Amino acid sequence: MQDILGELVRTRGVGGCLLLNHEGLVIESMLRSDVDAQALAAAVGELLAAIAELSRGMHLGRLASFSSFSEQGGIVLSAAGPAHLLVLCDASANPALLRLELRPFIDRIAERLSL
Amino acid sequence: MASAIADADAGEPRAVESEIERLRKKVENFPSPSSYARLAELLHLAKQDFEAEAVCRKCIKEFPRQAQPFVILAEIQMATGRHDAVGESLRAALERDPRHYAAARMYADWLEQRQDLSGALTQLKQILSYRPDDAQVKQRIAELQARQRAATGTAPPKSAPAMAAAPPRAAAAAAAVSDSSGSRAVPGVRRSAFELLAGESGIHVCAVIDERGEVLLARNHLARAGAEEILAAHAAAVDRALGVALRCLGQPRPSSWVLSAECGQVLAFRRQRGPLLAAFADASVRPALIELRALQALVDLGTA
User: Fold this and answer.
1) pLDDT digit string (tens) for B242-259?
2) Is there a domain that residue B107 lies in?
3) Residue to test with chain B: of A20, A32, A54, A99, most B Cβ within 10 A
4) Distance (Å, whole) CA A50 – CA A67
5) Which CATH number goes with the domain that contains B261?
6) Could B262 and A61 be called an inter-chain contact, meaning their C-beta atoms sit closer than 8 Å?
7) Is A36 on the interface with B (CB under 8 A)?
8) Number of domains within chain B
């Protein structure tokens, strides 16, 4: 898994990544040293719970991805099998291109987690 | 509207200018109707109406079957006081796409403004043929029918809904977006950006939400009553949780987010510290296309 995430953070525009379960517990991470992975995972766990409520309320079905971008960068949160992959993007990221580039990584992570 | 942007936010015009430059290059190298439309709308937003109109006309020349450039052209003509030309542009849009909701609503308003109540009613009834549950359109029909009856001295039928007895534009005014900038060139004709956003194809629910998740303004095209409140409450919760997560990364609260799922998507936009505008849309709706409308709607609302 470290190899997959290591490859992912070498993608242009990616500043780090975090693999977590739906309860906000860290499975694997590759983040900058100044980012507290546990605290971030806990906050993203809360975000996932809020997203699940929104999806249920609006009958959206299964989550595909959640993304947010600003001038300073952004995040992309995608379902990866039983887990969720959070990708931190820097300001140079091309959101549309990044979503395309993430797909094979998500498939590989999902495959690895199903083993 | 553009002056409101300039006054309220010095950073936003720069972002708009940068997006305009990017789109100018894009339409030169890879022209597409959507790029032209976005460029024209941005130029119109930036009050560069002369160039916006030129972009619309170029798009019409290159993609003559597209309805959208005629609709943007109509908005420009409305803003610049060429009211006769507005009708021509809207008719051209509806010839190309008879189910263009925004064009149909604008054309009905234009006909009403010219005292052609029968024409406006016909136009609105045509909308009901493909959007039979559109509550706004039903309300406008009831209002116009009440005006027709008042003009001819006919008593209202017993089955007439209560809102039909209201003053012609009272209900619409109450439901309309308050325009603190007072930038509407022709009150009653120029539809607010929020209405245009809510009327975009594929958008089912649209709501402006305060910090506590209370609905400030909403349009719900779903048969499910109360969907706007569900959207508001949960979108506000997502927005708060996102803010907390981004603080862990030292990032500010974002100006937009998109939740994509198998049966649709929720898109949310904000200007600075203002309220959140959330929309529930089909999965096929492109976030980038509705972003501008959302921004315009928030500017109309006077959010800062």
Assistant:
1) 999 998 888 888 888 999
2) no
3) A54
4) 14
5) 3.30.450.30
6) yes
7) yes
8) 1
